[in-house]
Amino acid sequence: MTEENKGMIMYRKLRGRLKELMGQSNLYRQMADENFDKYLRAMADLDNYRKRTAKEYLEKEGDANRNLVAKVLPVLDNLDRALSSSKEICDRDESFRSFYLGVQMIDQQIHKILEAEGLSILKSEGQPFDPNKHEAVLAVESREHLPGTVLNEVEKGFLFRDKILRPARVTVSKPPADPGPKEEEMADGQNDEQ
Asked: Of 20, 62, 118, 123, which one is least surrounded by beta carbons within 10 A?
């Protein structure tokens, strides 16, 4: 074997080995691309999981706050009733006045804290009755108001983060059972024409 033949054989072997390595390189590049794609998907899944759990945490925290505030509402109602019923005594007795003002400041602080958390009073008086916001406890005949108008609140309603926490218990107007004088005159006028 001559040197030239040996060189040719070596060239063919090297060329074959190069093709083999190029094939392996393409295989490894394809595997790397697949692994990188899997990595990106896993990172996206992890990011979505983090966002989902953060959202669920906030929802659960909101539900817990909502439940706690709902339990505190009767206490606030009683505190407000106590303040309104003791207002007269406060005007007559100077020593009671300072106690009253202290309790009133505590009531205001509690309301401010709850308002900062998202509690707001549902304004009902003079508004049309809405069964989603109001609970009618009494219907009163009225000629001065349109039927279905909230006349007054028996118990305040509250919103918590723009959702109804407790509907307002209200008195609602209804049309009078007996016709008013104008309605009677109109009915008499129609009977006369017949």
From this structure: 20
